[in-house]
Design a protein that fits this description.
The complex is a heterodimer of chains A (321) and B (437).
Chain A lengths: L1 H11 L2 H6 L4 H12 L11 H11 L16 H8 L3 E5 L2 E2 L3 E3 L6 E2 L1 H14 L5 E5 L5 H6 L5 E7 L2 H4 L3 E2 L4 E10 L7 H5 L3 E5 L3 H9 L4 E5 L2 H9 L5 E5 H10 L3 E3 L4 E10 L4 H16 L2 H9 L17
Parallel strand pairs in A: 1-5, 1-6, 9-10, 9-11
Antiparallel strand pairs in A: 2-3, 3-4, 6-13, 7-13, 8-11, 8-12, 8-13
Chain B lengths: L1 H9 L1 H68 L5 H24 L6 H27 L4 H40 L3 H25 L5 H61 L6 H14 L14 H8 L2 H29 L4 H8 L9 H27 L2 H32 L3
The chains are: A alpha/beta (321), B mainly alpha (437).
């Protein structure tokens, strides 16, 4: 039984190492990142056969791959400049990443800083940048139907999505983390889930990880990851699994919850746009490189995320192998 | 015994005595049965006016107050720091009103009634809901999105637990009202049957006497016949007028009110979905779908070019059933609803096409613009429906009040007239009997 579980976990990716030996989690994750990042994210575990089939099929894709950076305006960028507006899809529900401050009416956060930086770099002035809230489930469609030019919205780069949209070079590394109330005795990720009621957003990576682990007493799925925090505050669930970015957002909203040690399912997030406009992707990649090299990326991280994350900024800058 | 009876029927005085006894029994039975049957209907009519219709009305009001509380809480949430005092007051009044009516209904409901179950659920869950809304408000004021999640959770509790319990309660009360109506309007056929039998017996005795004695009139028996006829007439007239008054109270009052209550709750459901969509800030399409299904339930999915009366839905139904007195406010509500829909579409287009959430929010709720928003049109719709409900309630009271008193008067009259008839019949036969001494 233990052997079978370990095998499952290995197939699932980096989570295996962190699950089996929390102490070495970070090192092991870094090593496993390139090879096994987003696989098995889309489907709950059906059994090892299916899992392996999926993996070999997806091995062909590299989530770090994008077009080389460039400062030149191609056809797509010229078209955007001609209409005098760059529409960027953002989130207005993820605290500290992109959320509307109800008292100022402004959308703010780490992703929003980045979106504004890209807008200013390409359009030259903020007035021509439109930030458009997009629902999680609508992200790919919004790009494909041209309702937005870019999506900067904690969007995980997956091989599946790469078939539909083009991604920039990734700008943040995330993995799945678990939050528990401070009073909980759980010391690591597996402890926090095993035999407990665990919560995750419907259709999220976290939900498939919980389903695959099969150790939770009950897996509660909700519309939005934040709903898990409501349920946890009301004592209806014992633990919440979500990615570390959103976990940070939850911890920022409730000082009585903490993120436990250990993570699983490392992945990267990137900016999505049309596959047919590589010149825009190249331009965005250039902005990203400058944004990071110029220290703005780190400053934005320090402002929005650092108080709630486990590590310094550079830990989260994705480095391909 | 049998021999005595046989002997009694052999002689003329014996037969007369027997006829007297028969007539006395029949007339008294007629009076008693009529009085009893009318009294049963009178107390049913009493229950309709002062018990089951008010309870059904209260149940509808509990349902409406709760739906209104959820809608208003969401409006206040969207206005956040700028929430005006009257929005807050309205929410508090809704909760207070619901709590008061729940307590009243519980006091009036017997422990075996199926309403007990829904009432106890309402009692338990209302404070829980209020607590969730306060948490949402507190979080929102601190500017953290968790507040939105709390408000959506609170609304789910409202829609998943409280409103269904209120709807169940309303179902139970409506059933009781229908049963009381049926009992109050039931034809007192037993009384009519005995009336016919009594009159026939009186006629037969008089006919027989006429053949035997060649005397055309027996004043006593004639008086008895007149009294029974008068009682029957009273019974018939009262039966017809009260049942038509009750029918009218149902047709112009209670019935249209039920339709109107359904429309009012649908209006509130649609408004709640509209608010929650903005609370969720585009993270889900759930509430946009809820708006679509609520408005479909309310006024069908036919376009604005189809006359309202011919559309499906609870609002056209309320328009069709409305009595003349309520026709004007219901029509006004329907017109305001069309304005609201247009405002909603404007806000929706601002949100989706122009990606301007703040403008969409301002077009939906606003503290400064109190005429041009979707919320303003909703409020106008809601107020007009409220006026229509008052008019229909007045129609009900007008028609139903006094029916019980009329029925009681008829019951008393039937009893008195029957006693008069019995006395007269016995005296009339007594005269004939005296001739044999």
């Amino acid at each position: 039984m233990l052997a079978a579980l370990a095998a499952c976990a290995t197939v699932l990716g980096g989570g295996a190492s962190s699950g089996a030996a929390p102490a070495t989690a970070n090192g092991a994750n870094a090593a496993a990142t390139t090879a096994a990042a987003p696989q098995a994210v889309q489907q709950p575990q059906q059994g090892q056969q299916g899992q392996q089939g999926q993996q070999s099929q997806d091995d062909a894709c590299d989530v770090y791959k994008s077009v080389p950076p460039s400062t030149e305006d191609g056809r797509a960028v010229k078209a955007i400049k001609a209409k005098h507006s760059l529409v960027i899809g953002v989130d207005q529900n993820s605290y500290r990443w992109g959320s509307r401050n109800p008292n100022t009416g402004q959308i703010e956060g780490f992703d929003v800083d980045l979106a504004r930086a890209i807008g200013t770099a390409i359009m030259g002035n903020q007035g021509q940048v439109v930030l458009k809230p997009v629902a999680t489930a609508d992200r790919v469609d919004a790009v494909k139907n041209g309702r937005v030019d870019l999506i900067v919205r904690t969007m995980t780069v997956t091989c599946d999505r790469m078939k539909d949209v083009a991604f920039s070079t990734p700008y943040f590394s995330i993995s799945q983390r678990v939050l528990v109330p401070k009073a909980s005795p759980a010391t690591n990720l597996d402890d926090a889930i095993k035999g407990h009621r665990a919560c995750a957003a419907k259709g999220s990576t976290a939900a498939s990880v919980l389903d695959a682990k099969k150790t939770a007493k009950q897996v509660v799925t909700v519309e939005n990851q934040l709903d898990c925090l409501v349920l946890m505050q009301l004592g209806k669930v014992d633990a919440t699994m979500t990615d570390d970015g959103l976990a940070a957002g939850q911890a920022a909203q409730d000082q009585t919850v903490r993120i436990v040690d250990g993570d699983t399912q490392p992945a990267v997030i990137g900016i999505a746009m049309l596959k047919t406009s590589p010149d825009l992707t190249a331009r965005v990649n250039q902005v990203l490189a400058d944004y990071h090299a110029g220290g703005e990326w780190g400053r934005s991280y320090d402002r929005w995320l650092k108080p709630y994350m486990q590590n310094d900024a550079e830990h989260y800058w994705p480095v391909p192998h | 015994m049998r021999a005595r009876l046989a002997r009694a029927t052999r002689t003329a005085p014996g037969r007369l005595r027997l006829a007297g006894a028969l007539l006395a029994v029949l007339t008294v039975a007629f009076g008693g049965l009529t009085a009893w049957q009318l009294e049963t209907r009178a107390s049913a009519a009493d229950r309709v006016v002062s018990y089951s219709q008010p309870l059904s009305r209260d149940a509808a009001e509990i349902h409406r107050s709760l739906a209104d509380a959820a809608t208003t809480a969401a409006t206040g949430f969207l206005l956040a720091g700028t929430e005006p005092k009257d929005v807050r007051d309205r929410y508090e009044q809704d909760l207070a009103q619901a709590a008061k009516l729940i307590a009243q209904a519980a006091a009036r409901t017997t422990s075996t009634s199926p309403a007990q179950d829904s009432l106890s659920r309402l009692n338990q869950q209302l404070p829980v809901y209020a607590g969730l809304v306060e948490t949402a408000r507190a979080d929102n004021r601190q500017g953290i999105p968790l507040g939105g999640a709390y408000l959506r959770y609170a609304s789910e509790q409202m829609q998943g637990v409280l409103l269904p319990a209120a709807a169940e309660l309303k179902g139970v009360e409506d059933k009781e009202l229908a049963a009381d109506y049926a009992q109050a309007k039931a034809v007192p056929s037993g009384a009519y049957g005995l009336a016919v039998l009594t009159l026939a017996a009186l006629g037969w005795v008089q006919l027989t006497l006429f053949r035997r004695t060649n005397r055309v009139f027996n004043i006593g028996l004639l008086g008895a016949t007149a009294a029974v006829l008068a009682g029957t007439l009273w019974l018939t007239v009262t039966g017809l007028t009260t049942s038509s008054a009750l029918e009218r109270s149902d047709h112009d009052g209670a019935g249209p009110l039920r339709a109107l209550d359904n429309a009012r709750v649908d209006v509130l459901t649609a408004r709640l979905a509209e608010n929650l969509h903005l609370v969720a800030r585009g993270s889900t399409t759930t509430y946009a779908d809820q708006w679509t299904s609520a408005t479909k339930h309310l006024a069908g999915d036919a376009g604005g070019d189809v006359p309202l009366e011919r559309r499906d839905g609870s609002l056209p139904e309320a328009v069709r059933l409305a009595p003349a007195a309520a026709a004007q406010p219901v029509r006004e509500a329907a017109q305001q609803y069309d304005v609201w829909r247009r405002q909603h579409d404007v806000a929706r287009s601002l949100e989706v096409d122009d990606a301007d959430y703040q403008a969409a929010l301002n077009a939906t709720v606003s503290t400064t613009d109190t005429t041009g928003t979707a919320d303003a049109a909703f409020n106008a719709t809601d107020r007009a429906l409220g006026r229509a409900a008052d008019a229909e309630q007045a129609q009900f009271t007008d028609a139903a009040e006094g029916t019980a008193a009329d029925l009681r008067l008829a019951a008393g009259a039937a009893a008195v007239l029957a006693l008069v008839a019995a006395t007269a019949a016995l005296r009339g036969l007594g005269r004939r009997l005296a001739e044999y001494r």
